[in-house]
Design a protein that fits this description.
Blueprint: H1 39-57
């Protein structure tokens, strides 16, 4: 999957605390990650990933 590192224990896509994979600019959330397989967790991870994407696309001088 785009060269993303996989978690050795479960084979799912590894992500850091900001939901970014080992490939810069590629984020993952929900059932493809090794975290809890609950809809509410997936929704929260998706929101966290969206915030990080927004930060990466927003020039620093425009950030709050």
């Amino acid at each position: 999957m785009l060269g993303c590192r996989l978690d050795e224990e479960c084979g799912l896509v590894w992500v850091d605390d900001d939901q970014q994979t080992s490939v810069e600019g590629v984020y993952a959330a929900g059932d493809i990650t090794p975290h809890s397989q609950l809809a509410v967790v997936a929704a929260a991870e998706g929101a966290m990933a969206a915030i990080q994407v927004h930060k990466s696309l927003t020039p620093e001088e425009h950030r709050l």
